[in-house]
Design goal:
The chain is of the alpha+beta class. The chain has a domain at about 20-160: Muramoyl-pentapeptide Carboxypeptidase, domain 2, CATH 3.30.1380. Helices cover about 50% and strands about 10% of the residues. It contains 7 helices and 4 strands. The chain has helices at about 15, 25-40, 40-70, 75-85, 110-115, 120-130, 155-170, and strands at about 90-95, 100-105, 135-140, 150-155. Strands 1-2-4-3 form a 4-stranded antiparallel sheet, with helices on one face. β3 and β4 form a beta hairpin. It is globular. The protein starts with 12 loop residues before the first helix and ends in a 31-residue tail after the last helix. This is Transcriptional regulator. It comes from Modestobacter versicolor.
Length: about 200
């Protein structure tokens, strides 16, 4: 019959997510205010504070995995870190390369803000360096217009020295005595007998 509805409906968080948001605008406005009144160092402090929670959560994941596996190799730590970053929304992967390791982040939750304030990328790079336990080098960032945030993780100096020594030993390996050298492809192995012609007196 007539009257007030028997039920009331409200939007859930999932429903609200379908509507436009202005979080990036709010963050940019706040950081612009900080930069204007406190300078670049103040922005850097905000970035470090923003990433402190991420660093703590990822550190716990890396240390737990390291204790379980019993391995503290840089590349192994990077792979665990990639999984932890993926759980945080970064869609990260890690792989081993000839010069060490490589960490790739296929998504950046703060890319629009970091495009104007690179201190966010710098603070994130410092967190990655701390968690993998070595110096790292940022090669590309989404905020800078690249497709992927790529971080190079150099191999330890001792490992690189061993690799170079192994390469030198391989290239300088002597050929065992008595081993015949294989003929080149297409080369003839026949010998042409010499012909002594009798000279005709003039």
């Amino acid at each position: 019959g007539r009257g007030r509805p028997a039920r009331h409906f409200t939007l859930t968080d999932a429903g609200r997510s379908a509507f436009p948001h202005a979080y990036d605008d709010l963050a940019l406005t706040a950081l612009r205010f900080v930069a204007e009144h406190g300078g670049p160092d103040a922005v850097r402090a905000v970035a470090e504070q923003q990433l402190s929670g991420l660093a703590e959560r990822c550190s716990t994941a890396v240390e737990s995995a390291e204790a379980a596996a019993g391995s503290g190799a840089v590349v192994d730590r990077a792979q665990v870190l990639a999984a932890a970053l993926t759980a945080e929304g970064y869609a990260a992967t890690a792989s081993a390369i000839s010069s060490g390791g490589q960490l790739c982040q296929h998504h950046c939750p703060v890319a629009h803000v970091a495009a104007e304030f690179p201190q966010l990328c710098e603070a994130e790079t410092a967190v990655i360096s701390k968690l993998v336990g070595t110096h790292v080098q940022r090669l590309a960032t989404i905020a800078h217009g690249d497709g992927i945030c790529t971080t190079h993780i150099p191999a330890p100096l001792t490992l690189r020295a061993e690799q170079r020594a192994g390469n030198k030993a391989t290239s300088a390996r002597p050929v065992p005595a008595g081993r015949a050298t294989a003929p080149r492809a297409g080369a003839s192995t026949r010998t042409t007998p010499s012909i002594d012609r009798e000279r005709t007196p003039a």
